[in-house]
């Protein structure tokens, strides 16, 4: 499949990880006097508020684990259909009818997984291809905010400093956003998995062999008797946060 997007990876420097602390998150998102009260944050997010800060996205993303709509084991057939439609697109010869069908499907998928970088990236692409720069910028801003929240939750260098995710697929998307090719995830503890890097970079004189992710929030919502089976690992090519100028 040809590349659909060429995006620029541009992160602000993360001076310290903002590890999600459950007591803090629950306190902030349930206090109506808090700037992170979830109802308000959610409305700003869904309305495309470009003033949302990295702190806002931290409470938005991790606070979603406490919302009734959070069902990480539910299937997302709209995402599957979205990927099927996208796989047949030639980015050099896109027709409006196909793009509009992809837009409808991607929006439906987003309703089920509102923080999926893969879906947010697809919505950015579709609006861009349809010539709607304003909407493309809004969806790109959402994607950037979500990816930064996950990357900012831990350096991912060890199982004791993992990045925290609400869906397994989000780990794949973040790895793609950073341009890391990786092998199959391997569980290293009851709450952490490692994504081995195929071309380990050297950072601070040490080879970075893999990125660790904490998936504990996912299993807090596991239905009784449910056995998880990972979805196919099709990855939207060149998923990276976009910078508009």
Report on this structure.
It contains nine helices and six strands; from the N terminus they run αααααααβαβββββα. The two termini are 28 Å apart. It has 245 residues and is an alpha+beta fold. α2 packs across α3.
What's the helical proportion of residues?
40-55%
- Secondary-structure class: alpha+beta
Which sheet architecture does the biggest sheet show?
4 strands, mixed
* Poorly predicted spans: 1-15, 225-245
- Percentage of residues in DSSP E strands: 5-15%
Kindly report how far apart the N and C termini lie.
Answer: 28 Å
Overall pLDDT, averaged? Answer: 85
Query: Any idea what the shape is?
Result: globular
Q: Number of helix segments? A: 9
Secondary structure tally: strands: 6
Topology order in helix (H) and strand (E) letters: HHHHHHHEHEEEEEH
Order of adjacent strands in the largest pleated sheet? 1-6-3-2
Structural descriptors:
245 residues, alpha+beta, 4-stranded mixed β-sheet, disordered N terminus
Q: What's the layout of helices and strands?
A:
Elements: H1 22-30, H2 38-46, H3 54-63, H4 77-87, H5 96-112, H6 117-129, H7 133-151, E1 163-164, H8 168-177, E2 186-187, E3 192-196, E4 202-203, E5 206-207, E6 210-214, H9 216-220
Parallel strand pairs: 1-6
Antiparallel strand pairs: 2-3, 3-6, 4-5
Helix pairs in contact: 1-3, 2-3, 3-7, 4-5, 5-6, 6-7
